[in-house]
Structure formats: structure tokens, C-alpha cells
């Protein structure tokens, strides 16, 4: 459920930034908001990524965190927001699929036959 909250938070920040940029014409405020939140979230992701690497689990997180940091450094804050949405959206989908698969497998195991009959000719 942790990933759903991250995704919701990023979507909320994106919505606020869209309002700031295109309705209120406060582009600088939108940039500051996305840069601050993007930096904070990418720092948390970087720390989680280092923990995963130490545990021997490698993934695409390194590339995504690098892309977020690079786009923020060059001022492409909307691009960093899109990368954040893609990364957290993927994590949320993965979490949902894992939970669903565990539930279905548990159901199958609980409803599997307890006895078997063999036909001998």
C-alpha cells in the first residue's frame, strides 16, 4: 500500500503544479514545487535502491533515479514529474499484481482436493 500513497502524492503534486503553471500563471512556483518534491522522493528512492543493491537485488530503479535527478538539474521539471509518475505507477501496479497473485494462489491451495483416486486397470 506504500506505493499507492507515493503515486497519489505525486499525482496530487502534479495537479497542483498544473494549476499553478497554466491557470494561475505561476510557472516559477510550479517549478519549485516539483523540484522540491521530486528531489525529496528521488532521495528516498535512492536510499531504498542502495538498500536493495546491498541485498543483492538489482533493478531499473538506478536508471529512473538518475533520470529524475538529471532532468531536475537541467530544469526539465515536467519531465522529472513524468518519470516519477511512471516509476511509482509501475511500482504500484507491481504491488497490486503481487497481492492479487498471492490471494489467488492462496484460494487455489485452500480449495485443492485433499484426496485423490487412482484407477487401476
Could you walk me through the main structural features you see in this protein, from its secondary elements to its overall organization?
- The chain has helices at about 1-25, 25-55, 60-75, 75-110.
- The chain is built from 4 helices and no strands.
- It is mostly helical and about 120 residues long.
- It is elongated.
The number of helical runs is 4
| Silhouette | elongated
Our measurement of the CA-to-CA distance between the termini, rounded to an integer number of angstroms, reads 54 Å
Q: What is the element string, with H for helices and E for strands?
A: HHHH
If you average the pLDDT, what whole number results?
Answer: 90
Beta-strand residue percentage = under 5%
How many beta-strand elements? 0
Low confidence ranges: none
**Overall radius of gyration:** 21 Å
Helix content: over 70%
Q: How can the largest sheet be summarized?
A: none
Structural class: mainly alpha
Amino acid at each position: 500500500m506504500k506505493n499507492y500513497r507515493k503515486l497519489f502524492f505525486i499525482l496530487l503534486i502534479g495537479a497542483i503544479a498544473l494549476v499553478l503553471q497554466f491557470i494561475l500563471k505561476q510557472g516559477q512556483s510550479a517549478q519549485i514545487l516539483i523540484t522540491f518534491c521530486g528531489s525529496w522522493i528521488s532521495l528516498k528512492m535512492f536510499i531504498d535502491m542502495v538498500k536493495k543493491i546491498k541485498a543483492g537485488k538489482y533493478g531499473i530503479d538506478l536508471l529512473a533515479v538518475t533520470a529524475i535527478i538529471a532532468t531536475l538539474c537541467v530544469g526539465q521539471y515536467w519531465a522529472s514529474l513524468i518519470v516519477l509518475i511512471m516509476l511509482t505507477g509501475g511500482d504500484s501496479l507491481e504491488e497490486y499484481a503481487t497481492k492479487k497473485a498471492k490471494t489467488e494462489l492462496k484460494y487455489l491451495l485452500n480449495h485443492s482436493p485433499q484426496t485423490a483416486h487412482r484407477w487401476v486397470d
